[in-house]
Every structure is written in C-alpha cells, then in structure tokens.
Design a protein that fits this description.
It is built from 21 helices and 13 strands. The strands form 2 sheets. The protein has a 9-stranded mixed sheet, sandwiched between helices. With 522 residues, the chain is α/β, with parallel strands linked by helices.
Length: 522
C-alpha cells in the first residue's frame, strides 16, 4: 500500500476517515452506499473504463467515455495541482489509493476488474499476478475466481467468503464492488468545481500572513427571514435560503478574509450538504486538510430565524457521528498545524473532552500560541474546564455566555463576571454584544461603544470580532492594546445584514474604513 501520509499531502483525500465503518461491512457492501446520481455515474464510468485492458492512462487519454464526474473530483484536481500531473493522468493513482480502503473482497474485485495492480508486488503461493492483470477482462475474472482463496489469504481474511462463479462475478459482485468504490470517491471528494457564484474569486485573494487554527462546527444554515417571530398557533410569513455556516466556519472565513492562513478543524457528513460546505471552505481559501468527512452521515443543519431588526432564534440539529472525536487530536497533521499557528480559535461546539484536550495540548506548547475561546454554545458542566482556563488568553462572548461559565455564582454585572473569570486564569475577557465591547485585562480596561448600529443584533458579529482579533494578534506579534480592540469591534459593523453569515465577514479595507469613519473626536 502507498504511504497514507504522502497520499494525504498530495491530494487531500482522507482515507483514514473514510474507512470509519467499513471494517464492519458484511455481505452486500452496496447496501451501505447511498444510491444517488453521482455514485451511479462514477460506478458506470469505472465499469466502462475497466473493460478490456483495464483502467490506465492510455485508456483515459483516448476514451470516448465522458469521464467528467471523475475529472471533477476534488482529490483528482488536488493531486494534479500538487504533483504537476494532468487531470486525466491523476485519475488512476487516486482510484488506486481509494480502492485500498475498501473491504478486502471488494478490493480484490475492483483490483482485478480495473487491473489496478494493487497486488503485483505481493505474489505468493497460488497467486499468478500476470493472469490477474491480463489484458483481457474475461481472463482476469477467471484468474480471480481460481485464486480466490489464495488472494484472501494474502489479506489475512478468515473465514474466506464463498468463491463466486465467473457469471456471478460479472453480473452481481463487480456491480456491488464498483458501487462501494464509487461511494467512497463520491463521499470523500465528489463535488462539482466551484462556480462563478461564489463570492471570493481567486483574483481578490489577499497575501497570506500568519497561520490560525480554528476548532468548531461547519454546518448548513437554514436562514428564515420573517416579519416577526411566530406567536403560538400562528404561522410567520417569510423567505428561506440555505448557506454554509457554523461558529467554526464563520470564524475561519472571517480570519481568511483578512489574509490569514487558516486551518479549520471540524467534521462534515458525506452528503450533498457536506460537499457544498467543503466547496465553500475551499473557495474562501481555508485549508481543508483537517476537515474530517464522515461517510454516509448527514451534515449538521442549523435553523436561523431572523427578524428585520436582526434578532434571531436558533435551532441546532446535532449528530454525534458528525463531530470531532478524541482520537482526531492525536493526528500528526493537527499537531503540526498547532505548532505552526500564530493563534488558536476554539468554540464550544466540539465535545467537552475535545475542548479540554485542545487546551491541554496548547498549554504545554513552547512557545504557546495565543488562544481565543468563544464559549458558545454553553457547556453543561463548565467547571471541568477551570483547570485549563490559564491557557485562555482571550475569552470572547456575550455576557450570558460568559456567565454560563460560572453556573454556581450570582454575578451583579458583566464587570463581576469578567473579574471572576480572570481570577480563574483567563488573560483577557472581551464582553461582546450589541456591537460594543468591554475589555478587561491587566493592561487594558476599556469600553468601546462609539460605533453606531442599524440593527439590534447580528448573527455574524461575534465571528467578525474574533477573526479581527486573531488578525491583530498575528499582525502585531505583541500583546494587544486598546487600539487593537477598537479595530476588532469595528469589524462587527459590516455584518449588519440579513444574508448569509459567512459572506458578511469584512476585509481589512472595510474595517479600516469603519474605523476612520467613526473615529472619536476630541
């Protein structure tokens, strides 16, 4: 098998994540694969390309078969971009590597049917690799059935499944195995190339400065704009749109829009929503290398109900499968990203154990990157975090979110909350709401409230503030001053609209304009 680490560095496919659940497949693996049009199209193309001599570069260059669904795979495009190979030439290595993560029997079947050569260097007693990869598909099928037991023995499969006849191999087994392979390809990276409707064209990408790693969710926001929140037994009239969002994604986009290199650490489902989220993330120039794709799971959806003055009601739909797990934090790629980070942003969307581990790991790093924590949504038992609050350099949230960290304490004011949290080890507390910010730290005590607001609230304000705060940390490389907090507060003003949250994140030029426009006069 090729080196998985090299593979991920070349094309970004996550076979280690795709494999989740595959080892438990029994019987007909096709039953586990969603039967959508993309899977069917990829299966059909693979089956047709595999005829005669099998899938090879020469066949791809001269075939009349429309291979567009394969050419549009993100993994294929990324492999071509990073290795310098042509897109057509990248299909074979991508298919070969993804096939390695099929269950053993399906792997053997697609290997012989497509003549991938996965076992060319693993010949042994009872295995004739020349016949297994013959130029004729019929001979390859015969060789596979004749060497069925020996090939399974090479893979340490016990018990060995019943040997199929050549007819069953041709009519049933290959169809099922191709469906499983197509499912992995479609799930992992099978979504269309970004179209012109995405807001951030490549020509406007600012020069990257610094690196930030963001932990949080990436979801599809269902935005419902209503005249007013519905009363009991009454319907509210309004409009609906859907767009990628989530506290993690919004903060990652906010930082990327300001020219920071951003790694987003999150999980998405292997469905159409997941593909749409990944496409948007890539178009916003946020790195995808730490995004986990969970096969055959549905991506998270959040319903956001917005009134004309910007007030919202939010309904989050959770799925325990589509979230970060403790094991995800042990990956060397994540450790490398953290060590290269100039700042780390962490929301409370991941499970508590993951949040604790992130804070624990970062607190032990030397040098330790500044950590920005956004304590939302509230945690059921926040007391378990108290031992890690010394690693938090900036705690950013509304007064209610900050107070939720102190469930056993009655605080008279936001100042009391900030004082208590700082006593637990937090470096700086930023109470952010209603487009104003109160800062409490050893070096800065200030209230920034001179920016006018046209809406009562904005879903994206906190994300914009956090992204701008990270930008100033990366840009300054020193402890922040009152001027930096003014700039981050100004970033909230452009988010006052009723559209997609992530799209409202401002650029450096926009924030600079707001600061100049509303600079306090002497």
């Amino acid at each position: 098998m090729a080196n998985p680490e090299l593979w991920r560095s070349q094309c970004g496919v996550r076979p280690d994540r795709v494999r989740v659940g595959l080892d438990q497949w029994t019987g007909d693996s096709m039953a586990m694969v969603p039967q959508d049009a993309r899977v069917a199209a990829i299966r059909s193309i693979l089956a047709r390309l595999g005829k005669y001599a099998g899938l090879n570069a020469e066949r791809l260059r001269h075939t009349e078969i429309d291979a567009a669904p394969l050419l549009e795979l993100l993994s294929v495009r990324r492999y071509a971009r990073r290795t310098g190979a042509g897109v057509e030439a990248s299909i074979l290595p991508v298919v070969r590597e993804v096939a390695q993560w099929l269950p053993p029997t399906d792997r053997l079947i697609v290997d012989a049917a497509l003549s991938l050569g996965l076992f060319r260097d693993r010949s042994g007693v009872g295995v004739d690799v020349e016949r297994l990869y013959a130029d004729n598909l019929g001979e390859r099928r015969e060789a596979l059935t004749e060497q069925w037991v020996a090939l399974h023995a090479l893979l340490d499969v016990d018990p060995v499944p019943e040997t199929p006849t050549v007819k069953r191999l041709r009519t049933v087994s290959e169809h099922n195995a191709f469906t499983a392979l197509a499912g992995l390809l479609a799930t992992d990276s099978g979504y269309p190339m970004a179209g012109p409707s995405i807001t951030q064209p490549a020509t406007t990408v600012p020069a990257r400065r610094g690196v930030v790693t963001v932990f949080g969710d990436a979801v599809i926001d269902h935005l419902y704009r209503v005249d007013a929140f519905p009363a009991a037994d009454n319907a509210a009239s309004g409009t609906f749109t859907g767009h990628p969002g989530g506290k993690g994604l919004n903060r990652a986009v906010a930082a990327a829009r300001l020219g920071i290199g951003v790694h987003l650490v999150c999980a998405v489902g292997g469905d159409e929503y997941g593909r749409r989220i990944l496409e948007f993330i890539e178009t916003e120039h946020v790195h995808l290398d730490l995004v986990k794709v969970v096969p055959f799971a549905t991506s998270l959806v959040t319903a956001v109900v917005i009134t004309p003055n910007g007030e919202t009601r939010i309904i989050g739909c959770r799925d325990s499968r589509v979230q970060l797990q403790d094991d995800d934090l042990h990956r060397p790629e994540l450790r490398a990203a953290l060590e290269a980070s100039d700042a780390v942003i962490l929301s409370f969307e991941p499970p508590p154990s993951v949040i604790e581990q992130v804070l624990s790991v970062v607190s032990q790093m030397r040098p330790k990157p500044p950590v920005i924590v956004c304590p939302t949504p509230s945690m059921p038992v926040p007391q378990s975090l108290y031992q890690y609050l010394g690693a938090v350099d900036y705690l950013v949230g509304a007064a209610a979110d900050l107070h939720a960290l102190l469930p056993d304490v009655h605080a008279e004011s936001a100042d009391d909350i900030a004082r208590l949290l700082r006593g637990l080890g937090v470096g700086t507390v930023c109470t952010v709401e209603n487009f104003r910010c109160a800062v409490a730290s050893d070096t800065v005590e200030t209230v920034i409230d001179h920016f006018p607001q046209v809406l009562k609230a904005s879903v994206g304000a906190a994300a914009a503030f956090t992204g701008a705060l990270a930008y100033r940390l990366v840009d300054a490389g020193t402890p922040l001053t009152a001027t930096d907090f003014v700039w981050a507060t100004a970033a909230m003003i452009p988010t006052q609209n009723l559209g997609a949250v992530a799209v409202s994140m401002p650029s450096v030029a926009e924030i600079d304009r707001i600061v100049r426009l509303y600079a306090p006069t002497a």
